[in-house]
Amino acid sequence: MGIDREKIKQAVRLFLEGIGEDPDREGLKETPDRIARMWEEFERQREFNFKLFEEFGQYNEMVVVKDITIYSFCEHHLLPFFGKAHVAYVPDRVVCGLSKLVRTVKAFALRPQVQERLTAQIADFLMEQLKPKGVAVVLECEHLCMSMRGVMSPGHITTTSALRGIFLSDIRTREEFLKLIGKKL
């Protein structure tokens, strides 16, 4: 689908007018273009080469990258939610570069989203790309749509998980993952 810079700029200008602001005043003059450039930047981060390594095929223990900083946007209010992602997989003859786990999180997060779907998308993508014995994803995020509007109660963390393969079927594998990311059952 891609980014349409002019539509974004028009929409932001209309939004600013709609909330009673003057889009031509000094602090807002460049805002429509800034927002369009920001979304173009996000779009570039969604595309990456998911390189696999088969020469490490003998490695069959859990790989965990934890505390990945995550930023996304609630699709209901277009307000940010942010926090940490923890991703693990148990390889089955192939591994990926560790940065690819971080890039996967960012690729799915940098769009209007809900945390539940985001968690599942990351897990499903990794299952499809790696064909591992299993994948586990845990997201812990604060949602500004709850913190600064609605209930107006900051500091709450929403935790979601997606478990696939051995992380679902083997309690010991699931417990090892939770211990490694510092969580208890």
How much is the average pLDDT?
94
Q: State the share of residues found in helices, binned by percent.
A: 40-55%
Number of strands: 7
Number of helices: 7
Total number of domains: 2
Shape: elongated
Low-confidence stretches: none
The CATH architecture assignment of the largest domain turns out to be: 2-Layer Sandwich
Keyphrases for this structure?
2 domains; GTP Cyclohydrolase I, Chain A, domain 1; 185 residues; GTP Cyclohydrolase I, domain 2; alpha+beta
Description:
The chain is 41% helix and 25% strand. Helix 1 (5-18) crosses helix 2, helix 2 (31-46) crosses helix 3 and helix 3 (98-109) packs antiparallel against helix 4 (115-130). The radius of gyration is 19 Å and the shape is elongated. The relative contact order is 0.14. The strands form 2 sheets. It has a 5-stranded mixed beta sheet, with helices on both faces. Strands 1-4 form a two-stranded antiparallel sheet. By secondary structure, it is α+β, with helices and mostly antiparallel strands. It is built from 7 helices and 7 strands, in the order H-H-E-E-E-E-H-E-H-E-H-E-H-H. It has 2 domains: 5-46, GTP cyclohydrolase I, N-terminal domain (GTP Cyclohydrolase I, Chain A, domain 1, Orthogonal Bundle), CATH 1.10.286; 52-181, 2-Layer Sandwich (GTP Cyclohydrolase I, domain 2).
